[in-house]
Amino acid sequence: MLELSDIEAGYGRTRVLHGVTVPPGKVVAVLGHNGAGKSTLLRVAIGLIKPSKGRVVFDGEDIASLAPHQRVARGMAYVPQGQQSFGQLTTLENLQLVADGRRGGKALIDAQLARFPALAKFATRKAGLLSGGQRQQLAIARALITEPRLLILDEPTEGIQPTIVAEIERTIVQLAGEGITVLLVEQHIGFALDAAERYVVLASGLVTQTGEGGKAATSTVRAAMAI
Ligand SMILES: Nc1ncnc2c1ncn2[C@@H]1O[C@H](COP(=O)(O)OP(=O)(O)OP(=O)(O)O)[C@@H](O)[C@H]1O
């Protein structure tokens, strides 16, 4: 559904990605050390960075020249690193900001509150007072209110306690079951490979390995990344 092939991109004159192609799959994990170019690749996917070379195709349409909001309108959603939310607004208000003006907005919110019981429990709590894991769930819930067919997640488990990591993994598997494609950047390799159908490893902006996900891939990937 999303095709990223032979991508070259960077910042100003600095090239970060050198001909990166991402394998297709229902859940695809992008792995690699700090600075490998993982977040940059996701920014190319959602349109925050224009690649200098390569193809960005979504559902058969070349979207390379589309702005991020146009990609969201096409069915893509992006959750950047850092569990971003409006800390002074409540959980519910954070969801309402996205749902307002959408047809069936209340039902869209209710569906996410049912998916994430912690958000339902703390619906009237200010987002700034939620735990990191709950704020990550809120960020994912906000993205899901746009009813995406492709969800792009940048390090959803960063700085999150292990119990919530497992919940987020379950959510990703569940979303795939609902027909939503997930493109995921992760440092947490075991988590990512458990959830992923395919993976790609980046090092210094180059693809060093691709393969099928699952537990068995963990040792191969660790060896490739020398960890
Ligand atoms: N806004 C920016 N301006 C200039 N250079 C940047 C910018 N963002 C990232 N870079 C550089 O691009 C390279 C790749 O960074 P990127 O964030 O894509 O890596 P990453 O694999 O996601 O790593 P991390 O896990 O640390 O986020 C790094 O050398 C980084 O310093």
TrEMBL record:
Highest taxon above the source species: Bacteria
Give UniProt keywords alphabetically: Amino-acid transport, ATP-binding, Nucleotide-binding, Transport
Q: Which SMART domains match?
A: AAA
ABC transporter domain span = 2-227
Q: Does the keyword ATP-binding apply?
A: yes
* Swiss-Prot/TrEMBL GO biological process terms: L-amino acid transport
User: Sorted alphabetically, which InterPro entries does this protein's record hold?
Assistant: AAA+_ATPase (IPR003593), ABC_transporter-like_ATP-bd (IPR003439), BCAA_Transport_ATP-bd_LivF (IPR052156), P-loop_NTPase (IPR027417)
MF GO annotations: ATP binding; ATP hydrolysis activity; branched-chain amino acid transmembrane transporter activity
Q: Which family does it belong to?
A: Belongs to the ABC transporter superfamily.
PANTHER family, alphabetically?
HIGH-AFFINITY BRANCHED-CHAIN AMINO ACID TRANSPORT ATP-BINDING PROTEIN, HIGH-AFFINITY BRANCHED-CHAIN AMINO ACID TRANSPORT ATP-BINDING PROTEIN LIVF
State the name under which the record lists this protein: Urea transport system ATP-binding protein
Native organism is Actinoplanes octamycinicus
Lineage, opening ranks = Bacteria, Bacillati, Actinomycetota, Actinomycetes, Micromonosporales
